[in-house]
Design a protein that fits this description.
Distance between the termini of chain B: 31 Å
CATH topology of chain B: Rossmann fold
Largest interface: A-B, 18 and 27 residues
Distance between the termini of chain A: 15 Å
Number of strands of chain B: 10
Largest sheet of chain A: 2 strands, antiparallel
Oligomer: heterodimer
Order of helices and strands of chain A: HHHEEHHEHHHHEHHHH
CATH superfamily of chain B: P-loop containing nucleotide triphosphate hydrolases
Number of helices of chain B: 10
Strand content of chain A: under 5%
CATH class of chain B: Alpha Beta
Structural class of chain A: mainly alpha
Radius of gyration of chain B: 17 Å
Shape of chain A: globular
Strand content of chain B: 25-35%
Strand order of the largest sheet of chain B: 6-7-8-3-9-10
Chain lengths: 322, 233
């Protein structure tokens, strides 16, 4: 009951945030909040395979980047009125670009997952990392799409009836997508598919002996996770109006992983909280000193060691006992 | 329903099973007995496809199962209650039961949550509880319930009462009696002679990886000394 009231309050706070930032004259915070929501989606996607499925993917930035590039490439062809592969016209309609980004990143996750899920443990980490780096270098060398510089998207994708150039409208759109994503994910995790995924993490052989084709289940989970990261990437390009190979650099995979661990591995809300703390710390520390990564590292170290189980565990100890 | 003949298996270079024979027919309760380290669990592993057999034949429901992956064998209708229970600790009792529930052979009286709770009322009381907080006996009941929820043609129990309190042990034996009365085929792996003698239609004793004795309860009375020698009581 208490948890329900808290979550309703949190949702109301998120919806009303633009008014708050306006009243407090902190409009820059709104764009930070938008980025937090987007990274939250990406981190929660990673957490689904990492925390629930026990598959430590170190290459999730690949799907994040692919989702982003789908938006970027479609925009570029729309902008220059050229055809992709000689027959596909570009577009700047979000109702087309987002589903396409989800589809393409899902297909990429199916291909990468099909190969890397044949291994496990450290090999799995290394193979997913290798795939992501391969894609990174592929996009660096793609001069058509800006190479290292990436694609500048001058205008955010359009949605019917909405003025997407307005930062507040964009925030609400991202919030609506993030909430839908969150509740969909919650449902997925509580479904029998989700419990089987959790069971596979705990005891793969046992699941097989109970009639579950483990590899196929893991692959489906990996694909779903890839689509989530792709969705986040597509949104990120809309928010930053910029798609670049850096989106799939291995450090981005690392950041996503840090967000998951910081927030709480295998928890629903954790990745969103982790993304929030990570990005707020980053923007605050960066404004203080150019040597901010050092301080960031120390703070993260203290938080992870001190909380044992991330922010969610910390909150649980503060709130749960009382 | 299940026929094992001439089964051989090894862990790396060391051969463990040399010549295992056993058969379970429709509706029978059959036991597999033997001292520790004689190959009981290895035999079960081979039947379930969790271990690769090195030779011999295993036929389950008319299918040669050696070389098939465990999920295929499970889907043919083998339900294992593993040694050491191995429930999914972070899931609730209800989730443990429901996650892998299936009725693949379209039985018209399939196992449901209600029926499992009827068999083990304690599980109903604990339905929403995370299963790591259950007692050992309750975890064992959960493991049995989880296997039943896959509607197995053959239920295999590996050391189902190992390390449990006598009261709980009795409860589990009673449950097996009820299952037998309903016509469930069961393969029991155990060391507990007394109760098994009453329950089972046939016994197999293995020693050092070979089936060395087969018989029913009456045969066991007659061969008493020999049997006790094999089982080590």
């Amino acid at each position: 009951m208490r948890a329900r009231i808290l979550s309703v309050l949190l949702v109301l706070l998120l919806i009303g945030l633009p008014f708050l930032t306006q009243a407090m004259d902190q409009t820059a915070f709104l764009s930070l909040a938008t980025r937090i929501l987007v990274y939250g989606i990406a981190a929660a996607s990673l957490n689904f395979v990492l925390g629930y499925g026990g598959m430590v993917s170190f290459g999730h930035a690949a799907f994040f980047g692919i989702g982003g590039y789908v938006v970027g490439i479609l925009y570029q062809h729309h902008d220059t009125e050229t055809l992709l592969w000689g027959f596909l016209p570009g577009t700047n309609q979000m109702l087309i670009t987002l589903p396409l980004a989800v589809l393409v990143s899902g297909l990429a996750a199916a291909a990468i997952g099909a190969l890397s899920l044949r291994t496990g443990g450290v090999q799995f980490i290394m193979i997913t990392l290798a795939f992501a780096q391969m894609l990174f270098f592929l996009f660096v060398s793609l001069k058509t799409y800006g190479g290292e510089d990436g694609i500048i998207v001058r205008r955010t994708n359009e949605l019917p009836f909405l003025n997407m150039r307005d930062k507040t409208v964009l925030y609400w759109v991202v919030l609506a997508i993030a909430l839908t994503f969150f509740f969909g994910l919650r449902r997925l995790i509580r479904s029998s598919f989700g419990t089987v995924i959790s069971g596979i993490r705990q005891n793969e052989r046992r699941m097989a002996a109970l009639g579950v084709p483990v590899y196929r289940y893991k692959l489906y989970a990996f694909m779903l996770s890839g689509t989530g990261a792709g969705l986040a990437g597509a949104l990120m390009v809309n928010v930053l109006r910029f798609a670049s190979p850096d989106m799939m650099h291995w450090t981005k995979s690392g950041e996503l992983m840090i967000m998951v661990i910081l927030g709480g591995v295998g928890t629903l809300l954790g990745p969103f909280l982790g993304a929030g703390v990570f990005l707020m710390l980053e923007s605050w520390l960066a404004s203080l000193s150019e040597h901010w990564p050092l301080a960031m590292g120390l703070i993260l170290l203290a938080l992870v060691l001190g909380s044992r189980g991330g922010i969610m565990a910390l909150l649980g100890r503060i709130g749960g006992r009382g | 329903m299940l026929t094992v003949s001439g089964l051989q298996a090894a862990y790396g270079a060391s051969q463990v099973l040399f010549d295992i024979h056993l058969e379970v027919r429709e509706g029978e309760v059959v036991t597999l007995m033997g001292r520790n380290g004689m190959g009981k669990t290895t035999t079960v592993g081979c039947i379930m496809g969790l271990l690769a057999a090195r030779g011999g034949v295993i036929e389950f429901e008319g299918v040669q199962t050696i070389g098939l992956p465990p999920e295929r064998i499970s889907r043919l209708g083998a339900g294992l209650v593993p040694e050491g229970r191995q429930i999914f600790h972070t899931l609730t009792v209800r989730e443990n039961l429901m996650a892998t529930a299936a009725n693949r052979r379209r039985r018209n009286d399939p196992w449901t949550l209600e029926r499992v709770y009827g068999l083990f009322p304690r599980l109903r009381e604990r339905a929403g509880q995370v299963s790591s907080t259950l007692s050992g006996g309750e975890q064992q009941m959960l493991a049995v319930g989880r296997a039943l929820m896959t509607n197995p043609r053959l239920l295999i129990l590996d050391e189902a009462t190992e390390g449990l309190a006598p009261v709980i042990r009795t409860e589990i034996w009673h449950c097996l009696e009820r299952l037998k009365a309903e016509g469930q085929s069961i393969l029991l792996i155990d060391k507990n002679l007394g109760v098994l003698k009453r329950l089972a239609d046939r016994h197999y004793i293995i020693e050092k990886g070979r089936t060395v004795w087969v018989g029913n309860g009456a045969d066991m009375e007659r061969d008493g000394g020999k049997v006790r020698g094999y089982v080590g009581i």
